[in-house]
Amino acid sequence: MKRPKRRIRTFAKTAPKTKEKKLIENAKKLAKDPFILLPTCNDKGAEKVIIKVRKRIEKVWKNRNDIKKLEKLANKKGIEGAVAGTLMLIHSEKAPYLASARIGNRDIMYALRGKARKELLIAVQNFDDPILRLLGFRELAMKNKICLYSWDNGFVCSRGDSKPPEDFNKFVFDKIGLRFEKDIAHCSHIDKKRLRNGEPDKEDYLRIKWKNIVIGVCRSCANKSNKNTLFEMSKYFIDPNIGDTSVKIVSRLPELKGEIDELNDYLDGKITDAQLLSKTIEKWKKKLKSSDRRILIADGKSYDTVEEFIDSLKPNRYEKIGLEFILS
Ligand SMILES: [Zn+2]
Ligand SMILES: [Zn+2]
Fold first, then answer.
1. Which among 64, 120, 54 has a CA at the least distance from the CA of 89?
2. Least distant ligand from the CA of 220
């Protein structure tokens, strides 16, 4: 039998006092200056978009002392509705009734007011949280092709084709534990030059090119972190052109290459770096093993042992490792 009601993931909880206090404090800060929740614009393209949001927020903010008007404005669906709902908090005597939502791996509490989507309420009420405040601008950024970068010391908005700010890069690569220099971020086990050129190194590695930055994570580090590097990074930015990001796997054996079947799962954050590496390389190995038997037979001469066959090809050290693997 079908249940008539859908389950809703949000649920009410008795809120810890500190959380209530924090939300009201933030509402008071917004009453003083509602534009603190907006990103700083780095160029005219972004400014054109943000200025419209600014105007909508200003209209609501002008009514900050009128609870009746705020109540009405809180029914607006956009971010200004969430601002109105949040400003209502400073008028109520009682502690706000808090709802909870799961964002990533965190339980987020927020005050449910008006009709704005919960993402917008969460963003407005947590404007000082680099990850949560981005929730308020996702739709806007995608629609208007602007990028947002959010970190501990900055919140910046710029044209879709803009490069990420230097400070942002430092923050985000420090967060995920990669060395960062200029336009390359990597674990200590990958040679910078090889990574830049996408050439094989001592270990298999994941090579991501996002905007102007090349990112490399070796297989051991991927296994240790058990994370999806691109997904971890993207908690701190919105890039409408994220689909242009290139994700490649560079095997230490040059013979191992091909398509990445699990690419979409990776881009959606469903699998980790380690899973992408192991699944892909496993497939490439199978493919290579099954295809190379033919080469052995098709070769003009026949060889009794694998060793003789390999020697006849006069491989270099590198090729030899590969051949031994294929023919084993
Ligand atoms: Zn380096
Ligand atoms: Zn490594």
1. 64
2. 2
